[in-house]
Task: structure prediction
Amino acid sequence: MEHILELARARRSVRSFDGGGIGAEEREKLLAFAAAIENPWGLPVEFRLLDAAEHKLSSPVITGERWYLGAKIKAAPHMEEAFGYSFETLVLYAQSLGLGTTWIGGTMDRAVFGRAMELQSGERMPCVSPIGRPAAKMSLREIVMRRGVRADWREDFSALCFDGDFSRPLNETEAGAYAEPLRAALLAPSAVNRQPWRIVKDGGSVHFYCKHAAGYVSAAAGDLQKVDLGIAICHFALCALERGLPLRFSTADPGIPAPANTEYIAGYLPE
Ligand SMILES: Cc1cc2nc3c(=O)[nH]c(=O)nc-3n(C[C@H](O)[C@H](O)[C@H](O)COP(=O)(O)O)c2cc1C
Result:
């Protein structure tokens, strides 16, 4: 998979599909790619492609879908970030094959999807996604939904990225070699498009934080905003890797004073 920034730019949530489904060969490709996906937390994510008709799967916001991408992970600290990272890796790969997806953590019947995934106690399924070819035209519901969450809008670079500590905004020029990976991170999808990531570049290190809002935590899904952080970190890391930036992953809180409700998640340090 190449050109992560381009894939991140081209991806959008697809809620209207063409009804044609995806062929056996493509499904095999997706599953082979999925089986090799790793995340920096080292927590395995199990993926399945689920036939919507066979398992009676649907979502009130999705039309024309024939397949769902399901995934589950063992309940553990950092499972949300790990899940977000691994699932988004597959989302970007699907994008590279011309397939559309939508992260779904709310608008679904969890019991039905849980049965289809054979979810065991001790396992969690924070999100699922329909997967297939986008329809030629968006459904009215999709158009209304995109407007409701201002889906095409992303917060300015300098509103979310900081230099050294949270008191100094970082601009793209100052970000140097990290500008593109950071741009890729800021294009990430997030629950209700809240974009909860806050990022501090401290010299050669980049630290990711989550600015928590109320209403995103449940027993079944965990903290959806931490899933969002895993997604943004995935975009950053895959783009940095592609550019050959020598970085190593870290979960050691650097101790930078953070604003209220803003939790350190993980970062990358120079190698
Ligand atoms: C963790 C997570 C959960 C989401 N849950 C839903 C959902 O339940 N239903 C839905 O229609 N979209 C859901 N979305 C999609 C977001 O609304 C969408 O990514 C955001 O509005 C940005 O739009 P874009 O993906 O087209 O860039 C979710 C996204 C994420 C990352």
Observations:
- The chain has two domains: 4-142, 157-270.
